[in-house]
Amino acid sequence: MNILITNDDGYNSELLYILIDSLKENNNLYIYVPKTNQSGQSSKVSLEKKVFVEKLNNNIKIIQGSPLDCVLFGMEDLERSNISLDLIISGINKGLNYGNTIYYSGTFGAALEATIKNIPSIAISFEGNVIFLRNKININKMVNEFKVNKKYKCLININIKLMSKKMPIKLISEYRSIDENYQAFKVEYNNKKSFTLKSNTASINSNISSQNFIMVGCFNRYKGYLKGYHESITLNKFLYSNNKKE
């Protein structure tokens, strides 16, 4: 497949290169990523501004802009080279993006833009031990299983939490697991002249806060999460055989 990859953590993110390493053997990868961390930028676009591009190598271009800038330029850049995209992946994000947090996420915003062009897209976010991610999750297999049919015009939002090697992994649907009262941010006052916005680390659902889990949702920009999509999902679509690389 021809895959455009972006993220919101920037070009030096360890999780970005885990994604690249997992997919590079069987796919043509075109990476357009921000120069600096762009977390929380949602669908921000650098309108009417000159955005600079640096070429790191033949397939990696660094954009001095937002994740959405990366996707918009990447799609145009590849179209001019007569390269037709099969998939856009945003991630792997450091930190989870589900519940109300998706509307602030640069990872999610970049993937959502692909649906306007009717290009299948996946947003991937992770929290936990990176070694567990490398050894347990078969990212190449997962991506091939979840390249959603274009007729749905939605993105697949995948959140992976792996905190304990001993604990089993639970597969859950984002459609059924969200607490609508969850507040993504909290305000901390520094003094009378300044404040700091911080992420609210409280769990969206207390029943899954201490578990290893993989959460999957199929999100349409007009309808929200699509009910019924998750019924065919099984855990083996994510994992290496016997939790070891094949």
Number of domains: 1
- What is the string of SSEs from the N terminus onward? EHEEEHEHEHHEEEEEE
Report how far the terminal alpha carbons are from each other.
Answer: 20 Å
Provide the low-confidence segments as ranges.
none
Fold topology:
Elements: E1 2-6, H1 14-23, E2 28-34, E3 53-55, E4 60-63, H2 67-80, E5 87-94, H3 106-116, E6 121-128, H4 130-136, H5 139-145, E7 154-162, E8 169-173, E9 185-191, E10 194-199, E11 212-220, E12 224-225
Parallel strand pairs: 1-2, 1-5, 2-4, 5-6, 6-7, 8-11
Antiparallel strand pairs: 3-4, 7-11, 9-10, 11-12
Helix pairs in contact: 2-3
How is this structure best summarized?
This protein is of the alpha/beta class and 246 residues long. It has five helices and twelve strands. The protein is 20% helix and 30% strand.
